[in-house]
Amino acid sequence: MQAEIRKNLGNPVQLEQLYRNNKMAFRRAFTGMYPDIQENMSAQIWHERLNFEKEEISWGSVNELIVVMGASFIAGLLAKLPDFTGIKPEYFYPRNSAFIVFPVLTAYFSWRQKLPLKTVIMSSFVIAASALYINFLPANHKSDTLLLACIHLPFFLWTLLGFTYAGGHLRNDQGRLNFLRYNGDLVVMTTLILIAGGGLTGITLGLFNLIDLKIEKFYFQHIAIWGLAAAPVVGTYLVQSNPQLVNLVSPVIAKVFTPLVFVTLIIYLIAVIYTGKDPYNNREFLLIFNLLLIGVMAIILFSIAGTAKSAGSRLNTLMLCGLSIVTIILNGIALSAILFRISEWGITPNKLAVLGSNLLILTNLLMITYRLIRTVRNRYEIEQVERSLASFLPLYGLWALVVTFFFPILFAFK
């Protein structure tokens, strides 16, 4: 996007078209490159236009508010299904937690993006088929493939949401980039909503306790659960309607947490060596190791999205590069441990699922690190780093699909 803006600075019609095609992406790209083009008269005009401060938050049209309230109500209704149907919570939530939010958000973006009916029907069919499949898997709590299916299904539905967000186009690279940024913004906004909701909950319960009314059970069963289900929907609406709300927050969080995570991982690696913990023979340690790897990958994604918004400094890019290199080392340790365990004790669903995930993450990390090294010399290469992230979204979704739908059958539901 930055390259296209720079190319068309002298063409106001083309600039306007770029802006109208994707206002959020245009705003972020322009803000990042403005320090280098601020002498240009056209750039100055666009800077004033994009940074005109609104006095209040935009709440959209009445129709949008009705859609958001309806989507929030449906999300809460889905979360309360065990109470309405008598289904055991321990059966319902592991299998269906992903269906509380992702289908609702998918429907919201289908409406917002005005997707063709064919695309909407296809997405609806995939969601319905997934719900039927996961709920008809044998109820064996000792089944590794059932657990893997429940873990990977949310990732599959997440990629389906990304497909809808990108306008229903499989090769929409810009749409994938915007989807990654949306996820970072949504994390910030939803966290703020939940913090505010937690404060309201504490005040409410405290006030009623003062008059000797114990409403904790009623409150959490009939109010809090609706709020939790609705938070991502409301957060999505606020982010889409008011991108300026988190435009300044995400880069700050990225700049603060990137060095902290980098230092923490280095200390952690030293501590692993010092304590002599062995991921090769300790299954639980290897599991935690891989969860750590996924968490760090998510932080890298969030940091790169935040850096791209503000065309981050050279130091921040170096920190991201170092974080990626350390994560590659962690991934290499985890991958070698998995291969060792497979060679010693044979293949199992868990080992194969983790092996595939680690190979995907390692390949993605190598591409990201290569691009980050180039970005140290040319900061506008940060867009290519984002593209390296975005290009792997379909692959992550494909692997999640394989683990969710084929592993149980391949391993006879064991």
Automatic annotation (TrEMBL):
**UniProt key word Aminoacyl-tRNA synthetase:** no
Query: What is the designated name of this protein?
Result: Membrane protein
Q: Which UniProt keywords apply?
A: Membrane, Transmembrane, Transmembrane helix
The superkingdom of the source organism is Bacteria
Instruction: Spell out where the chain crosses the membrane.
Output: 57-79, 117-134, 146-166, 186-211, 223-240, 252-273, 285-305, 317-340, 352-373, 393-413
Organism expressing this protein natively: Spirosoma radiotolerans
